[in-house]
């Protein structure tokens, strides 16, 4: 029998208040780059820092940096602040509703919400790029954020078809290019998918120690069947399967990662990922989109993160998206990875029980409240 929902979440779903106010617009369609405008979103509440939060607009401590103060504006200092929690997400019309909920959840549960900086990556070909910006600014007028254009052509020729078409979108591969897209001054970032919500302080996740050598940290799932993520052609080829020799390779989900961008740049890990994608074009070695190249490069060499930070799989599998229960243990982040998304199931009046935990973060304006 399914485990009952934790009392904390039941209380959470009843008492989270999200005020209705004016906001910008966006929509959903099969092609995020050409999506028309149809949905409107409410303005979220403003969240304030606690008294213990450090400043993120003046973190320089050397004379040389002080001399250059007049050459920097506050926006630049915020985007580069080492006291900020830097969060990277992709942004498109197809998942904007999920992105808005994720942002709200991060801010609501943060002890220093004004010290959170969002780095959004959007397709450079998106016809609605300005409207994506307007949507974020309309619902979060106080938010520290920047949007970076991602050239689909950089990866389009490397993408192989996978088991679900949504996994083949070029923007789904943007996480491999964060070190190039974000300013060099950003040294560490928390990458989040758009189909999740946090119920804990993201600063705890951002503070994950990466040790002396690890490039990224993520929850590992060593009980998962690791062989499933690669084809028989891969495992039957000794020159390929030996990739994991002397590595305790375990599955990890790339929807929640803490990444050291300095180490990534120094090790040129984008090129390493691209090399596996090029091989995949020549011979089929995996089926699951952007995940396997990350496993090939990093599995067995990542820093551990408690499983509470990625209660993943709530969207079911990649085929039917059936309802799933929470994994045993505490919860800091709920992740609807898989085919089923909570907003789609709620709209269809066929929600799964855990979708009720996503609903309080939904900023979508009901149709009847749209301004004329």
UniProtKB/TrEMBL annotation:
Q: Which UniProt keywords apply?
A: Glycoprotein, Glycosyltransferase, Membrane, Signal, Signal-anchor, Transferase, Transmembrane, Transmembrane helix
The membrane topology noted for this protein in its Swiss-Prot or TrEMBL record is: Single-pass type II membrane protein
The molecular function terms of the Gene Ontology recorded here are: glycosyltransferase activity
Enzyme Commission no: 2.4.1.-
Source taxon at top rank: Eukaryota
| Biological or metabolic pathway of the protein | Glycan metabolism; pectin biosynthesis
InterPro entries, per this entry? Glyco_trans_8 (IPR002495), Glycosyltrans_8_dom-fam (IPR050748), Nucleotide-diphossugar_trans (IPR029044)
A GO cellular-component term linked to this record: Golgi apparatus
The residues forming the signal peptide are 1-23
Compartmental location: Endomembrane system
Q: What class of enzyme is it?
A: transferase
Q: Which family does it belong to?
A: Belongs to the glycosyltransferase 8 family.
The record, for PANTHER family, names: GALACTURONOSYLTRANSFERASE-LIKE 1-RELATED (PTHR13778:SF16), GLYCOSYLTRANSFERASE 8 DOMAIN-CONTAINING PROTEIN (PTHR13778)
Q: What is this protein called?
A: Hexosyltransferase
Please report the organism this UniProt entry assigns to the protein: Escallonia herrerae
């Amino acid at each position: 029998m399914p485990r009952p929902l934790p009392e904390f979440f039941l209380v959470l779903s009843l008492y989270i208040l999200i005020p209705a106010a004016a906001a910008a617009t966006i929509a959903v369609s099969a092609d995020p780059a050409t999506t028309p405008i149809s949905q409107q979103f409410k303005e979220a509440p403003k969240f304030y820092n606690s008294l213990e939060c450090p400043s993120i607009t003046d973190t320089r401590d050397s004379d040389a940096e002080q001399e250059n103060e007049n050459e920097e504006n506050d926006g630049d200092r915020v985007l580069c602040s080492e006291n900020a929690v830097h969060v990277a997400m992709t942004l498109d019309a197809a998942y904007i509703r999920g992105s808005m909920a994720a942002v709200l959840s991060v801010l609501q549960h943060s002890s220093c919400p004004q010290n959170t900086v969002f780095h959004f990556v959007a397709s450079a070909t998106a016809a609605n790029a300005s409207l994506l910006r307007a949507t974020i600014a309309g619902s979060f007028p106080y938010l520290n954020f920047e949007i970076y254009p991602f050239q689909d052509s950089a990866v389009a020729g490397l993408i192989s078809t996978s088991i679900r078409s949504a996994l083949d979108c070029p923007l789904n591969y943007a996480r491999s290019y964060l070190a190039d897209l974000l300013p060099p001054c950003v040294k560490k970032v928390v990458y989040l998918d758009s189909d999740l919500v946090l119920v804990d302080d993201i600063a705890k996740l951002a503070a994950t120690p990466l040790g002396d050598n690890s490039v990224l940290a993520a929850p590992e799932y060593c009980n998962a069947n690791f062989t499933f993520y690669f084809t028989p052609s891969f495992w039957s080829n000794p020159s390929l399967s030996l990739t994991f020799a002397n590595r305790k390779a375990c599955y990890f989900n790339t929807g929640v990662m803490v990444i050291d961008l300095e180490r990534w740049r120094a090790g040129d890990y984008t090129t390493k990922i691209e090399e596996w994608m090029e091989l995949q074009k020549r011979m089929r070695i995996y089926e699951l989109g952007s995940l396997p190249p990350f496993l090939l490069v990093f599995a067995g060499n990542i820093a551990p993160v408690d499983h509470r930070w990625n209660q993943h799989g709530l969207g079911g599998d990649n085929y039917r998206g059936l309802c799933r229960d929470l994994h045993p243990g505490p919860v800091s982040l709920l992740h609807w990875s898989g085919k089923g998304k909570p907003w789609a199931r709620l709209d269809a009046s066929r929600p799964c029980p855990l979708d009720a935990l996503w609903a309080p973060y939904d900023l979508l304006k009901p149709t009847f409240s749209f301004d004329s």
